Amino acid sequence: MNQFQCTLHLQTFRTLLKQCITQKDFLTGKTLHAFYIKSFIPHSTYLSNHFTLLYSKFGTFSNALTAFHFTGYPNVFSYNTIIHACAKHNLPNLAHQLFDEIPEPDVVSYNTLIAVHARRGECGQAVSVFKEVREVGLVLDGFTLSGVISASVEDVGLVRQLHCFALLCGYDCYASVCNAVLACYGRLGRLNEAWRVFREMGEGCRDMVSWNAMIVACGQHREGAKALRLFGEMERMGLEVDMFTMASVLTAFTCLKDLAGGMQFHGKMIKSGFHRNSHVGSGLIDLYSKCAPHGMLECMKVFEEIPKPDLVLWNTMISGFSQHEDLCEDALSSFREMQRVGFCPDDCSFVCVISACSNLSSPSVGKQVHALAIKSDIPCNRVSVNNAFVAMYSKCGNLHDARRIFDTMPEQNTVSLNSMIAGYAQHGAEIESLQLFELMLQEKIVPNNITFISVLSACAHTGKVDEGEKYFNMMKEKFGIEPEAEHYSCMIDLLGRAGKLNKAERIIETMPFDPGSIEWAALLGACKKHGNVELAVKAANKFLQLEPYNAAPYVMLSNVYASANRWEEAATVKRLMRERGVKKKPGCSWIEIDKKVHVFVAEDTSHPRIKEIHTYMSELLMKLKQAGYVADIRLALVKDEDVIAIEEKERRLWHHSEKLAIAFALISTEEGAPILVVKNLRICGDCHNAIKLISAISGREITVRDTHRFHCFKEGQCSCRDYW
DNA sequence: CTAGGGTTAG
């Protein structure tokens, strides 16, 4: 083979390979590579580099690395290519190692290294590389700036600084840099600043990315309507839209809880095929899981339509299941299925599945997942993961472990404090809860709307009216947080339960938006507690209008009447409920013993050891009566208007699901072991009385988690101090 | 050879 032929071959190879890369023809590219290795063509760095690029783009990382090592005399280009592959495959150490081998790194080398850190959210590291560029005297470019800016999310000050710097360098009309700035302000919730950048870019500089970034900024910060207006404008102007646009618009529908609009948009996307994109699919799943009443069924259909699901799509499914209390088991099975088909869970997958465990009635599953997380490759000391553990342990009744994780986690943020404060509040440890909040203020960790929900509910649980009002005002005045429905309902709950029913009613009347069912429910609950029948009727009617198929208002109202001995009216409410086909959820309790969950429904006889349980319960009832227990038969649920004998009412009360579960725990666990029962409704007054006595007689610590809070019974007392 | 925008989480 003479010199001439070789050159010819080299040129052919170059042309062909370049074609393969631009046309994404990986197969032909690989064949070319095989030919190249076997042929006698002299070594070409140029060709090797492009083979590395080919594998980096379409093949595995290890193939790319092999191709790189095959390059006899690597140049900057070769290094840059392989470092880029490191960024793509999240290999920061290798990236640095390779970078240090470059004899004379150029700007691109630095830019690529910044990208490695930007992808991992390592702001500090990205900034130090950025500084190095200036120190070594290289001229930075738009890539450098956009890279370091996008890494600086989470730090407004830094973004502003870099923004100024970019303007000084004359990048005010450079789309990528401006877009990075815009997106950062957006993600930080600095919508005004984002809008300013968007406006100042002008039509000449603005591109599709700018529009997309602005839409998502609005959609993620309660400005769904503005996001939709922006999209409308894009369409009117005839601008091009892509997958990013679609996914961004979906966040707007989710933000507005506009299911109908979202569905219509979904329909339009099916025509254009956008719905088969995995990112768009995640957006759809997020929408349906959060806004549709039985959304997970729809989510499964969306999932099926996507040919190449990615990790986030799986995570979104897991998250969706975990947010529906009755579907948490499905969250766990999706988590397993995801691994079965070859995905490696990341920290977000774990956060979702841990949160599913919090809603489960078996604490041991949470512990297992904890162990799994430690064994896995995820950075399990991440704040997000630890926060999930704190929430999970406290929701599983284990405040002690929650606090231990909280105390030992290397980094804390607002959410960590929120989880711990909420944990204390739910357990009736209001003092600790409020102390921690004060500490938070001292440490200058900024509370958010969620923090105040916990703080206000802690006040409500203990009847601390003055403090509650103080914090409610602080929220608006000191932190500029507008109270939402939850905050108002906490205040109504707080005032109402403390007996200030008129004040509570006034809050509902003067709220800046239409009261929803949760506010009326809070008022109704307060009326029930204080026996204010007239106001209860008003609240119940409002509640009924808003949610005619929810059993809660009917049951509560009829209990109000029953407590006032107005039996006929109580029966009328029940009849109305039956006529409308509304069914009360049957009371159900779960208890985990030896890693097995046992379910009890009221008057349940299906448990294999029910005979034993009943025998034990009769003995227990005797002891309880001796200790002064009197069944509160007003609370016995009357299923129909038939007059029922007092004995029968007593018997029904005595077979409430939580009592059955506790009795079973008492006979099947060792003396002195603590007991945790999870219930699907709120605990009833009679059970509350009875369990207090049971805790004294048996010397056990009994914790009941109902839909509202925890009741920790110990030595005849409950942690709620009967204020609930 | 490198960039900016989308989806999940407590």
Which secondary structure elements does this structure contain, and how are they paired or packed?
Layout: H1 3-22, H2 26-38, H3 45-58, H4 61-70, H5 76-88, H6 92-101, H7 107-120, H8 123-135, H9 142-151, H10 156-168, H11 175-187, H12 191-205, H13 208-219, H14 224-236, H15 243-256, H16 259-272, H17 278-291, H18 295-304, H19 311-323, H20 328-340, H21 347-359, H22 363-375, H23 383-395, H24 399-408, H25 414-426, H26 430-442, H27 449-462, H28 465-479, H29 485-497, H30 501-510, H31 517-530, H32 533-546, H33 551-563, H34 567-579, E1 588-593, E2 596-601, H35 610-626, H36 646-654, H37 657-668, E3 675-679, H38 685-698, E4 702-705, E5 710-714, E6 717-718
Parallel strand pairs: 3-4
Antiparallel strand pairs: 1-2, 1-3, 4-5, 5-6
Helix pairs in contact: 1-2, 1-3, 2-3, 3-4, 3-5, 4-5, 5-6, 5-7, 6-7, 7-8, 7-9, 8-9, 9-11, 10-11, 11-12, 11-13, 12-13, 13-14, 13-15, 14-15, 15-16, 15-17, 17-18, 17-19, 18-19, 19-20, 19-21, 20-21, 21-22, 21-23, 23-24, 23-25, 24-25, 25-26, 25-27, 26-27, 27-28, 27-29, 28-29, 29-30, ...
This protein binds one DNA strand of 10 nucleotides through helix 3, helix 5, helix 7, helix 9 and helix 11.
GO biological process, one term: RNA modification
Organism: Medicago truncatula
Family: Belongs to the PPR family. PCMP-H subfamily.
